[in-house]
Amino acid sequence: MAKAIYEGLKFRYKTTVIHRLDPRVKMLLSIVLFALALLGFNFYQEIITFVLVAVPATLAKSLKRLMRVVALSITFGVFVVAINLLAGGTVVESIVLAVRFLEIVASTSLFFVTTSPDELEYVLRWFRMPRDFVFAFATSIRFVPVLLMDLTQIIDAQKSRGLELDRGGPIKRIRNLVPVLIPLIVNSLVRSGELAEAMESRGYGAVKKPTSMDVLRLKINDWAALSLIIPGGALLIWLYIYVI
Amino acid sequence: MALIEFENVSYKMPNEVLALEKVNLRVDEGELVAIVGGNGAGKTTLLKHMNGLLKPVTGTVRVKGKPTTESSVAELSKQIGLVFQNSDHQLFSESVKEEVAFGLRNFGFPPSEVEERVARALNAFGLGQMSDRAPLTLSGGEKKRLCIALVTAWDPIVLALDEPTVGQDHLNKVRLLELVRRLIRDKRTVLIVSHDLEFLWPLQPRTVVMSGGRIVADGPAASIFTNFELLESSGLRQPQLARLAVALESPSPFRDVDEAVAWLREKNGPWSSGSQTAFGKG
Amino acid sequence: MRLVITRILVISLERVAVEFNDFSFTYAGSTKPAASHVTFTVGEGDVAVLAGLSGSGKSTILRAINGLIPHIYPGEYSGSVKVEGMTVQETPTYELAKKVGFLFQNPENQIFMFTVERDIAFGLENMGYDPKVIREKTDWAMDLLGIRDLAKRSPSELSDGQKQRVAIAGSLVMDPTILVLDEPTSLLDPHTALEVVRLTKELNKRLGLTVILVEHRLELVSTIASKIIVVKDGSIWIQGTPQEVLLSDGLEEVGLSLPPVVEVQRKLGLKSGGIALDVEDFVKEVPRLWR
Fold it and tell me: Is B229 within a domain?
């Protein structure tokens, strides 16, 4: 499950109109869509929000992947419907609520599937986050696939020694995790030690304000996108709140 | 009887890469088989099919005649003992003896037998003195031996080692070689997945060459290891002794240095003392 | 131009790149010294191979070159280590990082960023270079290692050999004069291992880099080495040219495997003079041997 979500959200390098936008513009777009998803309370609003998320996702050739992420969250959606029904909501209300939840997921995912972790790092720097924090954040994302690989290999190794993870009662099952978690932790510690050595060897912390290879600069297509997103977003939010 | 049989096995990774393609392989009782190839040739994927960690997409893998799709990983692992490349991916117990006991308990051996088997396995691998030490404090070579010991403890019908020499220094490799020789003397069926041909050469195993998920050759070491083109195209390097035999046009490959020396002496006559200094750059 | 001239002057005047003088080190919390009374020099442009069993102290010696010892690993330090004239003990690691490129065993753990080019630029960013300079140098390093086409790729998609190249580019981008490699081939298959060894030699030739390399498969490196230093229990057991070292007695005891072709020559009774280090040279010499 975790692996499926990770696969869904993992960035893949593409060169579409959306991918080429400045990451800050993509972030703004995602925030506006997120706000619209949050504000949507009726059927029409849900439809409009859906279209507004689907269009950039299609332009980014990532609609399918986005839908897969959404499909994975459907369980939660069903859960939302159930709770709402139990709490005395009508069927339509409950469905709208669930759709709203899914749209929130979709609008945030849009940012992650179109923005490389690299760009994300630039955005964090642009927000003047402390260098150590940005670096820790970046490496933690960078090492997700590496740790997943470790995890798979550890599970395979222990299964080959007769470990059956999904066997026994709840307590036994938790105990079953020990042979997997200990090697995983030990390996991660070894890795982080080597990582620290490598950072040191590459001059980490040499100057107070490290520079970066690329500087975020808004290009003409970014301005064009902004001129659509800002007034359009403001108008829609106003419409959502006061009109429809 | 064939212990392991691959019949037209193909396997696709989740990312659609074909990791095994139409593999046919048969391993008989008492054989020593080396599976060689560069990194990414599909060797480990092949191993994982043997104890059911992976199930074939097409084709059939049979262990003792029974398709692996009909057994659990645990049932198969009791028969096919896999030793993975990275020891640190396996060791987790407080003590060496607990580490060995883990597998035995999983496979349902009664407590009295567990104790007996632990002691036997540790002594056989020269780890008897360390039974109370924490596995994580062992050296790299000791960890590797422990990982092999803990699998042999349950007496699988096949012992399969994945890249046993990676990260090991020369001394440990020499010990590993001795250990494999002993396993063969004990009539065990042993599979070694490796790209370390220098290590495999003295063992003269039946050698299966993999490349790009396919088996591209299967035969005695003497004929495979002397085939330069085959090895090069499979991401491997000829052992130096095999290269030497080919370069000197020896009719048979040299298994060890002594054979090479004997052959050189025989061919060229006795050594003349005066030529010693004439050698090399001067 | 002036830079080039100074460089040549420096090379011809001070030919020593790395100098260990009676260096001993005991890690904090340990009682046994990891290195004791280590003395050796590596000249500019040399390829020095450090060999010995695991745990013999090779890694400790390497880490004393780029300052991880004593700056990151505290302990009892005596003697001195000089790198390009700088005393390591008194020089911060980021200063040493400009002179010493360091390559670890597992390239996976030294690639931090999400794209190859960003990772290669990492060191330069740390040094606070101007974005334009970073771009230029990064492109130069990628071209040098033939990985320009991988610029936008994510490190997790690369093959082992490619990862090793990225890691090398990431240290060369800082324009170091010394490249230190800690068992760079131990996780690689033989083909890729040979590729890395050849690449190292090429960089040594083309850039005049001083190379210090840990490797116990002498078969793989004896032909490119100008010096072999054998370490045992934290001390230097023997050092010299490959010829000298490979002809010395007792190498098996310190856990070194002689290249089989060298062993053949030794068993034939060759005690003095040069020995052939690889099969091709040996075969060429055979007729002369029995002259």
Answer: no
Say yes or no: B28 and B81 in one domain. Answer: yes
Most B-contacting residue of C187, C189, C222, C283 (CB-CB within 10 A), to test interface: C189
Out of C93, C98, C121, closest to residue A200 by CB: C93
Domain limits for position B77? 4-221
In contact, B79 and B156? CB cutoff 8 Å: yes
Q: Residues B84-135: pLDDT tens digits?
A: 999 999 999 999 999 999 999 999 999 999 999 999 999 999 999 999 999 9
- In whole angstroms, give the CA distance from residue B247 to residue A90: 86
Count: domains in chain B? 2
CB pair distance less than 8 Å for B53 and A160: yes
Contact list in C for residue B258 (CB cut-off 8 A) is 267
Q: Do B280 and C273 lie within an 8 Å CB cutoff?
A: yes
DSSP string, B262-281: HHHHHHH-SPPGGGGGG-TT
CB nearest to C216's CB, from B169, B235, B243: B169
Q: Are residues B210 and B268 in the same domain?
A: no
Contact check, Cβ <8 Å, C131/A211: yes
- What is the tens place of the pLDDT at every residue in A61-108? 888 888 887 887 788 778 878 888 888 778 877 888 888 888 888 888
Q: Which of C84, C60, C82 is nearest to C73 (CA)?
A: C60
> Is the same domain home to B132 and B185?
yes
Closest CA to A201 of C178, B197, C11: C178
Q: Is B214 helix (H, G, I), strand (E, B) or coil?
A: strand
Which of chain C's residues have a Cβ under 8 Å away from the Cβ of B279? Answer: 265, 270, 273-276, 285, 288-289
Indicate which CATH number applies to the domain containing B89. 3.40.50.300
**What is the complex's ipTM, to 2 decimals?**
0.89
Judge whether residue C266 has pLDDT over 60.
Answer: yes
B29 with B146, same domain?
A: yes
Q: Provide the whole-model pTM.
A: 0.86
Q: Which pLDDT band, with edges at 50, 70 and 90, does B279 fall under?
A: very low
Same domain, B274 and B179: no
